[in-house]
Write a structure and sequence with these properties.
Layout lengths: L15 H6 L7 E4 L3 E5 L9 E5 L11 H20 L5 E5 L15 E6 L18 H8 L3
Antiparallel strand pairs: 1-2, 2-3, 3-5, 4-5
Length: 145
């Protein structure tokens, strides 16, 4: 397997996903290409819960090279299409967590895929409370340019 980085790079040797990619830790591989690795989440909390990661280490979507991010997006699409077209699922939830405030606990970019069946009862979206600010206020704060 060709790695895009050296495991001796700062912080990478401690990254569980880098160690999985390097073959140092076991994983149930679902898909792999030259830039992306997809495997079942060891948490085993939802049937088929899959993680899609770039082979090159980056912390999350904020520091990921755009070309790497595009490769990961293609991997997410490939795996999701396979689950729907070939594995008998009706859809998929796809999400990523960025930084601890959003729940990120492994600091290697990864996307979660939950393969879904109609009526499966899987909790699929966080319970949200009412917004504190108007749409106008949020638009002013968040718009680009």
């Amino acid at each position: 397997m060709r790695l895009w980085y050296s495991l001796k790079e700062e912080g990478v040797m401690d990254c569980v996903f880098c160690r999985i990619i390097a073959g140092e830790l076991p994983a149930y591989k679902i898909y792999e290409d030259d830039r992306v690795y997809a495997f079942l989440d060891a948490a085993h909390d939802v049937d088929g819960h899959t993680l899609v990661v770039p082979k090159r280490h980056c912390r999350n979507i904020l520091d990921c090279d755009p070309a790497e991010l595009a490769a990961v997006a293609r991997g997410v699409q490939t795996v999701s299409r396979h689950y729907v077209n070939d594995a008998g699922y009706d859809g998929a939830n796809v999400f990523s967590l960025t930084e601890p405030s959003a729940g990120q606990s492994v600091f290697h970019l990864h996307f979660h895929i939950f393969p879904r069946k109609n009526g499966d009862g899987v909790y699929d979206f966080p319970k949200l409370r009412a917004c504190r600010h108007s749409l106008e206020e949020m638009h002013e704060k968040l718009k680009i340019g």
